[in-house]
């Protein structure tokens, strides 16, 4: 035995073997732990890059060219343009004025992403004229005027009649290659406010020929905590998403509109759900809390659009 060592040969061999294994293992630990650390890193979902348009109701005091230039400068892909009574384009003047508006939009490299109309049937000649003109100019989507219940009549019978009228409209639009979208709107008598009745309207129709503008403000107002159910019921028919917000007036016991992200709509949950279903169609930003009828408030409306668009972009990033 080596007098300088107090360990027996066999013990000394085991000690050296164990020490060498420990040293080698210590060199492997950092990369192993690093790999484990990478596995546990939570990846944020990719931000949504859907085309975003702005509802042009607050901008109707501008000329077509001024509006198109402003919308392009703010970074929108296009407008949701009003072609209806009191709209930026009056329905009666559609053949003269809509081409001028479309030309102005194209000049500034933006589009009419959606046309908002008074149309919910093809019985009226003015409706056929508006649709025919818009389709020839390349408009692919339009928002319908909602149907309304008459409480003096049986509800099931009215739903049957609405479906017949709707189906006739679909046939007419299919030939023009323009798609009718129906907005859920909060309020008594609105067909589609509860959204379940809207499902009855669309459930048997081709999804590439019909659709809805899912308005999360109105869905929250009417559905309270149940709106995710309506979301999942109607998601196959989403053709446009409407973004705006509201709060509740306790004294008046009714909703009032507020800037985006400051009210009762749960936007983080909403956008998380949109990402999970890979929603890729357009989003429309609505500014409803400033009186659009007053031209003196035009600059205030423009400032509100800019601010709410920043908020929307943040929400879309997640």
Walk me through the topology:
Layout: H1 9-40, E1 52-55, H2 64-74, E2 78-82, H3 94-107, E3 111-116, H4 125-136, E4 141-143, H5 155-176, E5 179-183, H6 196-202, E6 211-215, H7 216-223, H8 227-234, E7 238-243, E8 245-249, E9 254-258, H9 267-276, E10 283-285, H10 298-317
Parallel strand pairs: 1-2, 1-10, 2-3, 3-4, 4-5, 5-6, 6-7, 7-10
Antiparallel strand pairs: 8-9
Helix pairs in contact: 2-3, 3-4, 5-6
How does this structure look, described?
The strands form two sheets. Strands 1-2-3-4-5-6-7-10 form an eight-stranded parallel barrel, surrounded by five helices. The N terminus is likely disordered. It has ten helices and ten strands. By secondary structure, it is of the alpha/beta class. The chain has two domains: 31 residues; 266 residues, TIM Barrel, CATH 3.20.20. Helix 5 packs across helix 6. The longest helix has 32 residues. The radius of gyration is 29 Å and the shape is globular.
Count of DSSP helices?
10
Helix content: 40-55%
Main sheet record: 8 strands, parallel, barrel
Please state roughly what percent of the residues sit in beta strands, choosing from under 5%, 5-15%, 15-25%, 25-35%, 35-45% or over 45%. 5-15%
List its traits.
TIM Barrel; alpha/beta; 2 domains; two-stranded antiparallel ribbon; 45% helix; disordered N terminus; 318 residues
């Amino acid at each position: 035995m080596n007098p300088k060592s107090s360990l027996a040969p066999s013990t000394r061999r085991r000690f050296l073997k164990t020490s060498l294994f420990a040293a080698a293992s210590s060199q492997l630990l950092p990369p192993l732990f690093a790999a484990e650390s990478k596995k546990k890193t939570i990846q944020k979902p990719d931000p949504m890059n859907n085309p975003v348009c702005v509802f042009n109701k607050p901008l109707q005091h501008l000329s077509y060219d001024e509006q198109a230039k402003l919308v392009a400068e703010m970074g929108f892909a296009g407008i949701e343009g009003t072609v209806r009574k009191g709209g930026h384009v009056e329905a009666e003047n559609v053949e003269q004025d809509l081409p001028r508006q479309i030309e102005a939009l194209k000049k500034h490299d933006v589009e009419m992403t959606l046309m908002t109309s008074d149309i919910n049937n093809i019985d009226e000649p003015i409706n056929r004229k508006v649709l025919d003109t818009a389709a020839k100019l390349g408009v692919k989507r339009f928002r319908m005027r909602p149907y309304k219940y008459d409480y003096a009549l049986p509800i099931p019978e009215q739903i049957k009649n609405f479906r017949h009228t709707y189906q006739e409209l679909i046939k007419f639009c299919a030939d023009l290659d323009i798609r009718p979208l129906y907005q859920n709107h909060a309020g008594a008598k609105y067909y589609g406010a509860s959204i379940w009745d809207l499902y009855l309207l669309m459930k048997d129709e081709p999804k590439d020929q019909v659709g809805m503008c899912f308005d999360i403000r109105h869905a929250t107002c009417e559905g309270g905590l149940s709106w995710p159910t309506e979301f999942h019921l109607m998601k196959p028919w989403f053709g446009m998403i409407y973004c705006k917000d509201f709060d509740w007036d306790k004294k008046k016991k009714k909703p009032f509109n507020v800037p985006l992200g400051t009210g009762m709509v749960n936007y983080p949950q909403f956008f998380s759900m949109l990402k999970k279903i890979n929603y890729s169609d357009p989003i429309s930003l609505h500014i409803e809390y400033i009186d659009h009828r007053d031209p003196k408030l035009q600059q205030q409306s423009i400032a509100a659009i800019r601010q709410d668009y920043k908020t929307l972009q943040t929400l879309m990033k997640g």
